[in-house]
Design a protein that fits this description.
The protein has helices at residues 7-17, 19-50, 57-93, 124-127; strands spanning 106-112, 129-134, 140-142. The chain is mostly helical. Keywords: Membrane, Transmembrane, Transmembrane helix.
Length: 143
């Protein structure tokens, strides 16, 4: 699976479709992962109920294999949901222009994987930074 959350990918998507649409799509993808997590819980229940009281060894394998598949779906869905929600929230928290206050109305100027300066929060080290320019007043800041 390719990493769709790299700073380069995020910057490209924001350039192409704008921040508001990028944020909306990121939230939709996150909630699709949450649905995957919920489906995993259902699969665990199906494995527990549908194959209850197994007699032969292959029935045990089928029961616990189904429950294991459900557990994998839960872990995959939940971790991806949390990561996408946190990244979307972190970018959204910084989407207001510090000068005029307009939300999400900016153009991407440049981006990078390391902090742009010493004033950046620690969590930028993992997610990278995106330098943006406000469309209304021309102010520059990092998201």
């Amino acid at each position: 699976m390719a990493n769709n959350d790299s700073t380069d990918q995020v910057a490209q998507e924001i350039r192409q479709i704008g921040f508001i649409r990028w944020h909306s799509r990121t939230l939709m993808r996150a909630h699709l992962h949450l649905i995957t997590c919920i489906l995993g819980v259902v699969v665990i229940g199906v494995g527990f109920e549908a194959f209850s009281d197994p007699q032969a060894w292959w029935e045990w394998v089928r029961r616990y294999g189904t429950m294991g598949l459900g557990a994998l779906l839960v872990m995959f869905g939940w971790t991806h949901y949390l990561v996408r929600m946190q990244r979307a929230q972190r970018r959204a928290d910084r989407a207001n222009c510090p000068k005029c206050g307009v939300y999400g109305s900016f153009d991407v100027k440049m981006h990078g994987e390391t902090p742009a300066d010493d004033d950046e929060p620690e969590d930028d080290q993992a997610a990278g930074w995106i330098r943006v320019v406000c469309r209304r007043c021309g102010e520059q800041w990092n998201i």
